[in-house]
């Protein structure tokens, strides 16, 4: 049990899909955050698309997912 | 040994760091300035500082060695091992700590659970950090001794003098701003090695083709996901359960030296952005530390000790000038780790031990002075204990491994503390003590329980799980906290909308 023998039947391809799904799930959760919350700390008139932290997070996750897809 | 131009680069780097660090002395007028940079720092500096503090010279050598032996799966530690955890930290934990005006993670645990939990967590971190300091001083001295020919004790005192001076006077602002320069030097030196090494092996495709035909032991060298039954320490099950779910989160959310940086941000957006920016930069770290190890398989096949891969590549690939820059990059990694340990340990001692137990209610200048004196004392302790590394060569690995065992239980009580209102002080305390004890037990009898080499990922998962269950069970059996006690300490969806005071 300690060695996760019960997961020995899962192939490397399936395992990779689990990781990719995890990134997808995190991405969805980030998108669900209220926009007001991700801008908290910035004055209303200074809020632009480039300081939207949702966008930053999605970019990071997309690059990470592509690295996993490649390897 | 280094050439003349290399000496010049290294000496200029050391003097430059000292002067830059001392420049920030003028910004330190209170304990908040010293420990939290007056809450005035921008996200980009904090993000760079998080990354460079996380990767030290010993990791450069160690990770390259592991890449030489096990291939690209080592990259999981920065890719899957950091990014999701940093996003969770950025959007959930950091805003709570930042809004609560906290200085330390144990301070949160003390408010959420009780003073005992705070003290256990803080004392454990202080002990580990203090021991680590001696090890890092010794590692710096060995580097200076081998490459510059300086005697060991002169090397130790030089490192302690330079880092100690700017940390003592400039506090965390000096630490973070010198980290920025150290980050830039590390990236320039690291990428120079990667590009020249790639040229040497004839490009990426050529390297993949050569390694793939070197024999069955290299069959999985380019698989980032290793099978569950691999003998390497990185099966996908360990990466998912031990690293992604536990260790990465514990490190990014529960490690004082990481979180303290985000608390220096000038506002909540900068605090969140620093973690996300750091996660973007972290994606480049495997390129710097992993790729040279992979390319060494082609350039220097058959090394008995994988940790020789990076030094061999530097020696055979880099021209004079760049060797000095690479050495400065190594030294930057060490200095950033040492200054982080000094400042974080001084913060933990002053805020979690001195203020509650030794002298409550003193004026702010007093605590500033205590923080500075603690930094000095730590320097002396670090220098005095550094020869231990010479007598016990495996001590660095032993300290790092034991720290990893502490992280599962810490993350369990942090997670339940912030997401479950029913968690009680006795639940947290018993989970912490029993969880650490269980991790030690699994480590002592690891041959009986585990089939992989060095099962620290599995141990962190199982100790996390036991702590989680113990916390829930004991909490349900003990008296719950009142709403007043929980105010501002437990997650509420209101934080996502408008209530800044949560």
TrEMBL record, chain A:
Keywords: Membrane, Transmembrane, Transmembrane helix
Transmembrane segments: 20-39, 51-69
Protein name: Uncharacterized protein
From TrEMBL, chain B:
Transmembrane segments: 6-24, 44-67, 79-98, 119-144, 150-168, 180-199, 234-254, 275-297, 317-335, 367-389, 395-419, 426-444, 456-477
A Pfam family per the record: SSF
Keyword Zinc (UniProt): no
InterPro entries referenced in this protein's UniProt entry, alphabetically: Na/Glc_symporter_sf (IPR038377), Na/solute_symporter (IPR001734)
GO cellular component: plasma membrane
Organism listed in the record: Arenibacter certesii
Gene designation per UniProt: yidK
Protein's UniProt name: Transporter
Primary subcellular site in the record, as a coarse category: membrane
Source organism phylogeny: Bacteria, Pseudomonadati, Bacteroidota, Flavobacteriia, Flavobacteriales
Membrane topology: Multi-pass membrane protein
Family designation: Belongs to the sodium:solute symporter (SSF) (TC 2.A.21) family.
Gene Ontology MF term list: D-glucose:sodium symporter activity
Lineage: superkingdom: Bacteria
Keywords: Membrane, Transmembrane, Transmembrane helix
Record PANTHER family: SODIUM_GLUCOSE COTRANSPORTER 4, SOLUTE CARRIER FAMILY 5
Subcellular localization, as worded in the UniProt entry: Membrane
């Amino acid at each position: 049990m300690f060695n996760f023998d019960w997961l020995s039947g899962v192939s490397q391809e399936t395992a990779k899909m689990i990781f990719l799904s995890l990134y997808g799930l995190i991405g969805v959760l980030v998108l669900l955050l209220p926009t007001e919350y991700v801008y908290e700390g910035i004055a209303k008139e200074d809020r632009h698309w480039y300081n939207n932290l949702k966008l930053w997070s999605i970019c990071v996750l997309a690059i990470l997912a592509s690295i996993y897809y490649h390897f | 040994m280094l050439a003349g131009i290399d000496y010049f680069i290294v000496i200029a780097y050391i003097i430059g760091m000292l002067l830059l660090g001392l420049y920030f002395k003028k910004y330190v007028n209170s304990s908040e300035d010293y420990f939290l940079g007056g809450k005035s720092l921008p996200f980009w500096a904090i993000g760079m500082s998080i990354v460079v503090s996380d990767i030290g010279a010993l990791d450069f050598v160690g990770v390259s060695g592991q890449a030489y032996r096990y291939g690209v799966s080592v990259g999981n530690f920065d890719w899957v091992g950091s990014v999701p955890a940093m996003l969770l930290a950025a959007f959930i934990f950091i805003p709570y700590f930042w809004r609560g005006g906290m200085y330390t993670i144990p301070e949160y645990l003390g408010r959420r659970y009780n003073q005992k939990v705070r003290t256990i967590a803080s004392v454990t971190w202080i002990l580990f950090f203090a021991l680590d300091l001696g090890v890092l001083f010794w590692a710096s001295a060995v580097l200076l001794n081998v490459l510059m020919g300086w005697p060991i004790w002169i090397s130790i005192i030089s490192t302690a003098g330079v880092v100690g001076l700017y940390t003592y006077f400039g506090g965390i602002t000096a630490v973070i701003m010198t980290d920025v320069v150290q980050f830039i030097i590390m990236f320039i030196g690291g990428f120079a090695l990667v590009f020249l090494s790639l040229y040497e092996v004839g490009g990426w495709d050529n390297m993949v083709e050569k390694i793939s035909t070197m024999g069955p032991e290299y069959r999985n060298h380019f698989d980032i996901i290793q099978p569950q039954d691999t003998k390497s320490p990185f099966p996908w099950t360990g990466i998912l359960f031990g690293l992604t779910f536990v260790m990465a989160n514990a490190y990014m959310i529960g490690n004082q030296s990481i979180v303290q940086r985000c608390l220096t941000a000038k506002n909540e957006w900068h605090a969140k952005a620093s973690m996300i920016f750091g996660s973007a930069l972290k994606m480049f770290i495997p390129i710097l530390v992993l790729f040279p190890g992979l390319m060494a398989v082609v350039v220097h096949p058959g090394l008995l000790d994988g940790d020789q891969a990076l030094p061999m590549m530097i020696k055979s690939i880099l021209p004079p000038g760049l060797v000095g820059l690479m050495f400065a990059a190594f030294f930057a990694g060490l200095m950033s780790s040492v200054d982080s340990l000094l400042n974080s340990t001084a913060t933990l001692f002053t805020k979690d031990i001195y203020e509650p137990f030794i002298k409550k209610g003193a004026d702010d200048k007093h605590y500033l002075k205590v923080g500075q004196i603690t930094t000095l004392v730590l320097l002396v302790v670090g220098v005095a204990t550094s020869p231990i590394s010479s007598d016990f060569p495996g001590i660095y690995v032993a300290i790092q491994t034991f720290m990893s065992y502490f992280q599962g239980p810490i993350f369990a009580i942090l997670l339940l503390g912030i997401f479950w209102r029913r968690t009680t002080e006795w639940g947290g305390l018993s989970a912490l003590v029993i969880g650490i004890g269980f991790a030690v037990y699994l480590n002592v009898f690891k041959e009986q329980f585990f089939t992989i080499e060095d099962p620290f990922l599995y141990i962190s998962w199982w100790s996390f799980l036991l702590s989680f269950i113990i916390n829930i069970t004991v909490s349900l059996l003990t008296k719950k906290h009142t709403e007043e006690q929980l105010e501002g300490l437990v997650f509420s969806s209101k934080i996502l909308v408008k209530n800044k005071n949560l």
